[in-house]
Fold this sequence. Notes:
Blueprint: H1 2-68, H2 71-86, H3 90-103, H4 111-118, H5 120-130, E1 133-134, E2 139-140, E3 142-149, E4 154-157, H6 170-178, E5 180-188, E6 193-203, E7 209-218, H7 219-229, E8 236-242, E9 246-250, E10 258-259, H8 264-270, E11 275-281, E12 286-292, H9 297-300, E13 305-312, H10 317-366, H11 381-429, H12 431-434, H13 439-469, E14 478-481, H14 482-492, H15 494-499, E15 503-507, E16 513-516, H16 518-535, E17 542-549, E18 553-560, H17 583-588, H18 594-604, E19 609-614, E20 618-626, H19 631-635
Parallel strand pairs: 15-17
Antiparallel strand pairs: 1-2, 3-4, 3-7, 5-6, 6-7, 8-9, 8-13, 9-10, 11-12, 12-13, 14-16, 17-18, 18-20, 19-20
Helix pairs in contact: 1-7, 1-10, 10-11, 11-13, 13-18, 14-16, 16-18
Bound molecules: adenosine-5'-triphosphate and magnesium ion.
Amino acid sequence: MIGIRIIVISIFLLITSLFIVQAMYSVTVGQDFIQQSVGQSSLLLAEDMAKFIESGVYIKINDLTDYSKTDIVQKALLESNREFGKFEDIQGYIDLQESTWTSTPDEIITPFMQSLISNDLAEDIRKNFVEKINPKTSQSVFAELFLTNEYGANVAQSGKTTDYRQDDEDWWQKAKANGISISKTEYDESTKTDVISIGIKITDEDGNFVGVLKAALSVRSIIREAEISTQYEDTTQVNIVTEDGHLVYSTKAFRFNENISDQSFFTKLQSGPQQGFFVNDKKFKKELVVYTRPSNLEVLGEQDWIVVIKHDIGEVGILSGMLALRENIIITSAIIVVIALGIGIIFSRDISNPIIKLTYLAKEIGKENFDAEITIKGRGEITELIKNMKDMGTKLKKAKIQKEEFISMITHELKTPLTPIIGFCQALGNPEILGTLTPKQKDAVEIISKNANRLQSIIGDLLDSHRLDFHKIKFNFNEVNVVELINSVINNYEKEIESKKIQVTVDAKSPILLTTDKQRVEQVLTNILVNSIDFVATDTGKIFVKAKLQKDNVLFTIQDNGTGIPPEEIDRVFDSFSQIDTALTRKHGGAGLGLAICKALVTKLGGKIWVESQLGKGATFYFTIAQQPEQMDKSK
Ligand SMILES: Nc1ncnc2c1ncn2[C@@H]1O[C@H](COP(=O)(O)OP(=O)(O)OP(=O)(O)O)[C@@H](O)[C@H]1O
Ligand SMILES: [Mg+2]
């Protein structure tokens, strides 16, 4: 019955889960859609940012180029070049200055250095660039700025530079050759900041090369400016990372140049296209990562920074709404499942309880317990069925009582007239009571007597089987000597055995003692023996009776060489009123009750009965009887 319950509950759960799956699916699709649109719009933001950075750098380059054309620059370089031109060994001079420059300790500024830091041009570059604060960011944009003459020697500088000679530097040569050189993001030791170094070739009015200007552009300031110009939400985290995985800027607290190359979002974007977005699953949160690389590289040359915008999905307004919705759906789903389960259980109880009761009732009625009590509640087909079943039980009980009464009545009624018949037959057999009979009369009286006895035994069997049915048989236990019992049963049928010339053998060694109901064991043995006597052939018939004491019972074996029992009938011989339909059986007569009674008695006496037979070769009946009454229950 649990089956029905589980089915009902499962159907409930299935339907609710379908709803839940549908809801979750909608939310997920919605969430994906929103993620896409948030991703797209953030990508625009990242592009904006990248463009602001690029244009920031670009504007600064323009500023620097413009500055390189000013009188003060042109004049100073012209003068320096002219002066250097006078030297016999220009390179020798530069080398000499360079070696004293680089061997001077960091904290010391020599008068020569000082002259380059405090000349008019140096004052001017400090005023116009290094010390000039961008009002937007309240930071200065240039960390350092200096100019060299056409020979690569410093002419003016905003602060102390690490060396004097620059023409041996790549950027210097590159600027001289290409007009401009722009570095990747790099950490500048002298200004202790991250910078993009820009080298600009300076030419005079006629386009002749006169020197190089170098400016260290503060990356932070440029990005900050871009950041201010870009509208983004507080929850948005803007990062600038280099292609090789170093963090150079973040709107959240960060360590400059921190190596983030092993972080999952970086490995994803590193292998990604120019720009894009994806959801990065972290342990406790999900983040939407949007990134773009600079695009306008013709102007800026080789740039290696990537703008990475991260949104904590839980904090992006609409996305978090979606997440909350999902959470709500999960919570409500859980509640719905619990409710569905509850309803399912109640429903299933309503459905299965009556069926459980019905099954119980049917079983009890099957066991002939017609008084089985069950309560019926409510209406419905099953309740109706239970009611009908109960009514049926009541009717069956009534019918059984009627049957019982009928059998007691009929057996009594049949027995009563038999008593005088048998009595008078006996009287007729005695010449002293009713006179001598002629041989023919004597034969007739004998036939009457024999049949009356037979009738009496059939009535006795009927009564027995009826009593066994109603558990009304009472047993009287006393000590039984099995060998004596067997011999006495055989003796009772001496006449029949002799007339058919049956060879009876007994194999039972004294003493085999049992505590059991002697009369009932005798009845069983008699029934089987009488069958054997009837089913063996005259002259050749053999019956072998054996009793053997086993562990806690006695095994009886009655073997004959009679007709045997067909295999298909073997299971039926112990049923009431069952007889194998043969000419011999018809001659044998009887009601087909003997073995049924035997089985019931043996069982009640704590034993078992069974038969082995081969058609045409005979039958062997076995039965056991418990040795002591207390073993009866054990062996059942
Ligand atoms: N020794 C046997 N050999 C062959 N068939 C047998 C033997 N014992 C029983 N049977 C078959 O089993 C049937 C049932 O036997 P059972 O003793 O129950 O009934 P019965 O002898 O026919 O009638 P009852 O014993 O009530 O007078 C018999 O009618 C017979 O067909
Ligand atoms: Mg019989």
